[in-house]
Specification:
It is globular and about 60 Å long. The relative contact order is 0.10. It is about 40% helix and about 20% strand. A hairpin with a 4-residue loop joins strand 7 and strand 8. The chain has helices spanning about 5-10, 30-45, 75-85, 105-110, 140-150, 160-170, 185-195, 200-205, 210-225, 240-245, 255-260, 295-300, 320-330, 335-340; strands spanning about 20, 50-55, 70, 90-95, 115-120, 130-135, 225-230, 235-240, 270-275, 280-285, 305, 310-315. The longest helix has 16 residues, at about 30-45. The strands form two sheets. It has a six-stranded parallel beta sheet, sandwiched between helices. It has a six-stranded mixed beta sheet with strand order 7-8-9-10-12-11.
C-alpha cells in the first residue's frame, strides 16, 4: 500500500467511526476471512465496525471467529440498510465493482459514506475515495495484513485476526499451491501462525467436512467430465436434477473444477452448473500457465477474476451453453496449445 493511500486511510480513521465492511455475493473463504480480519482490527482501534454479506455462505465457513456477528442482507435487509445509513466509512473487500454484490448494489450506490476498496482482482472500478488494489497479491486477506502493517498497527494482531486472515489466504491459494503464493505470502503466514492461527485445525475445518451426498455428487461430476485433447481442455457439467438428487447445499461444488485441471495435459478446466432458481448456468474457469481465464470470462460470459481463476454465467440453457463453449474454443487453439 503506497504512502498516499496510507495517508488517506489514516485521515479517515483518525477518530472513532461507524464502519461497515462488505464482501461479495456468494462469499468464499477470502471474502469472509478478509472482512472478519479487518472487523477485529478496526474494533481494536476503537471503531464501531459491522460486517455485511449480500447472501448466505457455506456451512464450512461458519466456524470462523466473529461469524455470528455478520449481517446477511438477503435475510435482514432492513437491519443492514440501517447500518449503511449510519456508516461514515464503507470498506469493500475482495471485489472491485458494485455489480458483484447483487441486490445490495443499489444500497451501496445510494450510500453517503466514504468508500475504501481493498481487492486483488483485475480492472477495479473508481467508486472509492481510497483504493488499495494489487492484482499480484495471493488474496485480499493477505492485503489486509499489509494494510495493518502500512498503518503501523501489527501490534494489535490477535488470534482472531490471524485465524481469519490465514483462512482467507489458504483458501484463495489452494492451500498455498497456486502461483500467486509468493515468498512474502509465506512470511505473512508465519506471522499469523505466531499470532495464534492454528494451521492444521483451520485446514480440517475447511476441507474435512464432506457429507456422503457431496462425495456422491463429486463422483457424478467426474463421470460427466469431457476431455477435449485438441484444446488441452476439460469440462464438467452438473444439472439441476443431479444437484437436487444429492441434497445439494451451498458450497458443495467448491473445488470440483480443479479435478479437471489435475488431468495430465489439461491447461484449461471449466465446470458448468445449472441453476434453475436463477435461470442461468453458473461457470467456473481455471487454467495453468499464461492462458487468461479472466479475459476469456470477460469476453464471453459476463464474468472475470484472475489470470488462472475466474467465474461467469450464461443465460442459455445448459446444452446450448456447452455447444457455445465448444464453438468458441477454436479461436483460442493456438493460445491453449502454447501452454501445453
Amino acid at each position: 500500500m503506497n504512502k498516499e493511500i496510507t495517508q488517506q486511510v489514516e485521515t479517515l480513521l483518525s477518530t472513532p467511526k461507524k464502519v461497515v465492511i462488505v464482501g461479495h455475493k456468494n462469499p468464499d473463504g477470502d471474502a469472509i476471512g478478509s472482512c472478519m480480519g479487518l472487523y477485529f482490527f478496526l474494533q481494536s482501534l476503537g471503531h464501531q465496525a459491522e460486517v455485511v454479506m449480500p447472501n448466505d455462505y457455506p456451512t464450512f465457513l461458519k466456524w470462523m471467529p466473529g461469524n455470528e456477528t455478520i449481517c446477511i442482507y438477503e435475510k435482514e435487509p432492513e437491519k443492514c440498510q440501517l447500518l449503511f445509513d449510519e456508516a461514515a466509512i464503507v470498506f469493500t473487500l475482495d471485489f472491485n465493482a458494485l455489480t458483484r454484490v447483487g441486490d445490495l448494489g443499489t444500497v451501496l450506490e445510494t450510500c453517503d459514506a466514504k468508500f475504501v476498496m481493498i481487492d486483488h482482482h483485475q480492472a477495479p472500478s473508481d467508486y472509492a475515495v481510497a483504493t488499495y488494489s494489487d492484482v499480484t497479491m495471493s488474496s485480499t486477506s493477505e492485503m489486509v495484513y499489509h494494510f495493518m502493517d502500512a498503518l503501523g498497527r501489527l501490534d494489535v494482531l490477535s488470534a482472531e485476526i490471524a485465524t481469519n486472515l490465514y483462512t482467507g489466504i489458504m483458501t484463495d491459494t489452494g492451500s498455498f499451491r497456486f502461483s500467486s503464493t509468493s515468498p512474502t505470502t509465506h512470511r505473512v503466514i508465519a506471522q499469523l501462525l505466531e499470532a495464534g492461527a492454528n494451521g492444521s485445525e483451520i485446514h480440517n475445518n475447511i476441507y474435512d467436512t464432506n457429507t456422503p451426498e457431496r462425495l456422491k455428487l463429486l463422483g457424478i461430476a467426474l463421470n460427466n467430465m469431457t476431455i477435449l485433447p485438441e484444446y488441452n481442455t476439460a469440462f464438467i457439467t452438473l444439472t439441476q436434477k443431479e444437484l437436487d438428487d444429492n441434497n445439494f447445499k451451498k458450497g458443495d461444488t467448491e473445488g470440483f473444477v480443479n479435478y479437471s485441471l489435475s488431468v495430465i495435459g489439461i491447461n484449461f478446466a471449466v465446470i458448468f452448473i445449472e441453476s434453475k432458481q436463477d435461470n442461468i448456468v453458473k461457470i467456473s474457469f481455471r487454467s495453468k500457465g499464461s492462458f487468461s481465464v479472466n479475459e476469456f470470462a470477460r469476453a464471453h460470459y459476463n464474468g472475470g477474476g484472475h489470470t488462472n481463476a475466474a467465474g461467469g454465467k450464461s443465460d442459455k440453457n445448459l446444452d446450448d451453453t456447452i455447444s457455445e463453449f465448444i464453438s468458441i474454443l477454436p479461436n483460442y487453439k493456438n493460445a491453449l496449445n502454447a501452454n501445453a
